[in-house]
Write a structure and sequence with these properties.
alpha+beta, six-stranded antiparallel β-sheet, 22 helices, 19 strands
């Protein structure tokens, strides 16, 4: 239960062994390859080395093709899997099978080709549908749509707004152009569709008369038949396209068997991309390459055994103190504390020379969460959900840690629910009263949020003080181990002396006159410790700041723990409100329905609220006392799959 010690790794190996070595390093899964930017800017290195080339671009292109093919299958041949179904298990040999990858890439290209063809067909169908829409207003006219003025006859297709009276248009047209005719093809909610014929000598007069009514001409190009014939031809083309579309869709629907090889190829290509990304961090010379990275101390022996099988030179050493900011962080925790990784990683990993906060935080986080939720039914639901996922889903590390946190918090929630008598609030007493109005049944409880509010308030403050003082104690131990006892003496121990002095003053113990000696000693220590590095007027300012920050800091931090009482009280009240609303109907069924809906909402809100407020107490009030953050996560070259779990094989 600590930060895993890391070793600085440097390897000089033959270029011909590079690919094979990286394959084995990935299977080993313990080496993090570092960037080499600083060396490339160093003239001594830059004259000898260059960036190693890799096949990263090609691997990414292949992955994009496989991803697109899987997306095609998701649309046409979706796979039905249960929410809790575990991922299939495969061996590393299956993952790295080159023949399977080649076939999958060929299948991906075929699927993408069919999908592109399908897209083209859909576009063509859309065009035919749009063309038919343009033809529909003219279907009644038995006139070729490419009819143009000829000889002494002028003709034009056009549109007039539907709000215009066509008879008025015809009268106006007849007044200006006697030898003219306006035929209506159709009318919809927006337009009259008309066909104009007139003598060429009266063309301008006819158009002037029509323009006054909003006439706009319509020109049809490359259509030498009437609208009906054009529409029928388009419909025939559309049916043919729809047949092709259905045939292609059926082909894609039947391609479900291609999913497994594609998913296997996806997982293989993600490994290739990870390897190629690491290879781009190498420095290459004519026949050799240089690797700079990190390996965890427990895995160093395995790595050495591997490197000894190659013609290479390597160095493994402890990091120097100035290298600590660059050391990747890996936490080693047991089954009871690894669940806290969820919280630590959300906030920030510890620095390499800091402390692993997980075992120091786990008891408080779980205890506080259970206190805020405090309901047996909610706890049982959390426990059941966590156990089902852990047993059935076979989750990976991140999900496993989270569900274990839910499990432990559920147990704490159940315990506090038993202490407060909460089971969906006051669900059982309310139900008993509906069944028997004379019932006086109440759940056994050590204390209740509504009746013992003051006791819960004081308990919250006491728990807050315990955690704050625990954080201070951890800080004292850490500073002492690092050889900075003086800082611990003047920062934390001084305030302990002052607080003990205040307590003795209240009890009137150890006083000379009206002044408690311990308190006087504490004040002297505070005055010296806060001003030891200041000069002149700065000593006074430093002392005032130390007093102000210390007093307000203690009070504000401890008062923050009142949220434990607030959330316990709010969750209990909301549950009881919904139970009371359901009891208004005086019937069991409505009561259960309303109560369960309300409690489901209350549970969802409390899960989020309690987690956020618990997280705040740990990260601000607790971590601020001792935690040194800023660590970078350890991300070794390893096998990381999406669609499959890899069977662990003994080396």
């Amino acid at each position: 239960m600590a930060i895993v010690k890391m070793k600085r790794l440097r390897v000089m190996a033959m270029e011909s062994d590079r690919d094979r070595l990286f394959d084995e390093l990935q299977r080993l899964g313990c080496v993090q390859v570092s960037e080499q930017t600083e060396k490339l800017t160093d003239p001594d290195w830059a004259a000898l080395v260059h960036r190693d080339e890799s096949a990263l671009a090609a691997s990414r292109d292949s992955l994009d093709a496989v991803t697109a093919a899987i997306s095609v299958l998701d649309r046409y041949a979706p796979q039905k899997t249960g929410l809790l179904s575990p991922l299939p298990l495969i061996g590393s040999g299956d993952l790295y099978d080159g023949e399977t990858l080649e076939k999958a890439l060929k299948s991906a290209e075929e699927l993408r080709s069919k999908d592109r063809s399908l897209g083209t067909i859909r576009d063509e169908i859309q065009k035919e549908q749009s063309f038919q829409k343009t033809m529909e207003p003219w279907l009644k006219l038995d006139i070729p749509l490419n009819t143009r003025p000829s000889g002494a006859l002028y003709t034009a297709f056009g549109m007039i707004p539907s709000g215009v009276d066509l008879e008025a248009v015809r009268r106006a047209l007849a007044e200006k152009a006697e030898a003219s005719s306006l035929e209506e093809a159709s009318t919809d909610s927006e337009m009259h569709y008309v066909f104009l014929m007139c003598h060429k000598a009266e063309q301008e007069d006819a158009l002037d008369a029509l323009k006054a009514f909003g006439f706009s001409p319509t020109v049809f190009r490359d259509i030498d038949v009437n609208a009906r014939e054009a529409w029928d031809a388009s419909q025939a083309r559309k049916k043919d396209l729809e047949g092709k579309r259905e045939a292609l869709e059926q082909e894609l629907t039947g391609q479900g068997s291609a999913r497994e090889p594609l998913e296997l190829a996806y997982d293989r290509l993600t490994q290739d991309i990870q390897k190629e990304t690491c290879k781009e961090r190498l420095l290459a010379m004519d026949r050799t390459f240089f690797l700079d990275g990190w390996v965890s101390e427990p895995d160093a022996d395995k790595l050495e055994n591997l490197l000894k099988t190659y013609d290479c030179a390597y160095e493994l050493r402890d990091p120097a103190e100035e290298e600590y900011p660059d050391v990747p962080i890996r936490l080693k925790n047991g089954p009871l504390t690894r669940c806290m990784n969820v919280v630590t990683e959300m906030y920030s990993l510890p620095a390499y020379d800091g402390l692993d906060p997980n075992p120091l935080m786990a008891p408080f986080f779980i205890l506080f969460f259970g206190m805020m939720m405090a309901d047996m039914a909610y706890g049982l639901l959390m426990i059941a959900a966590a156990l089902v996922v852990l047993k059935v889903k076979r989750p990976r590390e991140g999900t496993r840690n989270f569900m274990e946190l839910v499990l432990y918090c559920g147990i704490a929630t159940f315990v506090f629910g038993a202490l407060t008598g909460g089971f969906f609030g006051d669900f059982i007493p309310q139900l008993a009263k509906i069944i028997n109005p004379n019932s006086t049944f109440t759940m056994p409880a050590l204390f209740t949020p509504l009746n013992d509010t003051v006791a819960i308030l004081l308990g919250s403050l006491v728990l807050g003080a315990i955690q704050v003082f625990t954080g201070m104690a951890i800080s004292v131990v850490k500073k002492t181990m690092d050889g900075h006892f003086a800082d611990a003496l003047w920062d934390e121990i001084t305030w302990w002396v002052i607080l003990v002095g205040i307590g003795l003053a209240v009890l009137k113990i150890g006083t000379v006159g009206s002044f408690p000696l311990v308190l006087v000693l504490g004040c002297i220590m505070l005055a010296y410790g806060s001003t030891r590095n200041a000069k002149g007027f700065g000593k006074l300012a430093a002392f005032v700041a130390a007093v102000y920050n210390g007093v307000t800091g203690f009070f504000s931090d401890i008062l923050s723990y009142l949220r434990l009482m607030a959330l316990m009280l709010s969750g209990s009240v909301i549950a009881q409100v919904f139970n009371t609303l359901g009891a208004v109907f005086g019937s069991v069924v409505p009561f259960i329905l309303i109560s369960m809906v309300g409690n489901a909402m209350n549970l969802a809100l409390n899960l989020l609220g309690c987690y956020v407020h618990d997280l705040r107490l740990q990260c601000l009030e607790y971590f601020g006392r001792f935690y040194k953050e800023g660590g970078k996560p350890c991300e070794p070259l390893s096998i990381q799959t999406t669609y499959h779990d890899i069977i662990k094989e003994e080396p």
